[in-house]
Amino acid sequence: MALKETIINESLKLFSLKGFISTSVHDILSAAKTSKGGFYNHFASKEALFYQVLNEARTIWRDRNLHDLDKVEKHIDKLILLLRNYKGRYLIDAEKFPGGCIFIMFAVELGDQRPHLSKEVQKGFIGLKTMIKRMLDQSQRSGELKNTVNTDVMSEIIFNSMLGASISFSTDKSIEKLDCSINALIAFLETLKK
């Protein structure tokens, strides 16, 4: 693995555990087993590294959460698979994100202290909520979802339930509680099918 990739991957882990602000460049150098010269040869600053780490985290998120969605025909079932992937392929990835969902860590930590970085993280949350809403709308248009379901409200419920499950899991690492949270959300979605 090239040094730049090593620095990004080690920073993913550190940022998920300690956050961006609490992780020092020295922490990154130690984890990546490199020098300041090795670091600054690839990144102009720790903030420049943040954007690379955020891009890598987004790539991992898409790879894990959107896995096999294209093989599912019904839109509501795509949403259910997204939730299963979120639980089983993304949140429990202790290798890449030992501290839990890096986006949650960034959102909590950066909001007041680094609002320009927080805005970059918020773009992902907006994108996720938009995707959930689109899946619900498509499910309703195709007759898979009851017409009485308010997709605006439902997308908020699903989005916030996903974030809540993520926060809970990052604090206690209980797979049993995570299963219970996501499975309850899936069971609720099943009741809304036609």
Question: How is this structure best described in words?
Answer:
By secondary structure, the protein is an all-alpha fold. The chain has a single domain (51-191), classed as Tetracycline Repressor, domain 2 (Orthogonal Bundle), CATH 1.10.357.10. Helix content is 74%, strand content 0%. The chain has nine helices and no strands. The protein has helices at residues 3-18, 25-32, 36-40, 46-65, 75-91, 102-113, 115-141, 151-172, 175-191. α1 crosses α4, α5 packs antiparallel against α9 and α6 crosses α7. The longest helix has 27 residues, at 115-141. The radius of gyration is 18 Å and the shape is elongated.
The residue ranges in which pLDDT falls below 50 over 5 or more consecutive positions are: none
| Structural domain tally | 1
CATH superfamily descriptor: Tetracycline Repressor, domain 2
The H-and-E topology, N to C, reads as HHHHHHHHH
Number of strands: 0
Give helix % range: over 70%
Question: What is the 3D form?
Answer: elongated
CATH architecture descriptor name: Orthogonal Bundle
Please give the radius of gyration in angstroms. 18 Å
What integer is the average pLDDT? 96
Strand content: under 5%
Topology:
Elements: H1 3-18, H2 25-32, H3 36-40, H4 46-65, H5 75-91, H6 102-113, H7 115-141, H8 151-172, H9 175-191
Helix pairs in contact: 1-2, 1-4, 1-6, 4-5, 4-7, 5-7, 5-9, 6-7, 7-8, 8-9
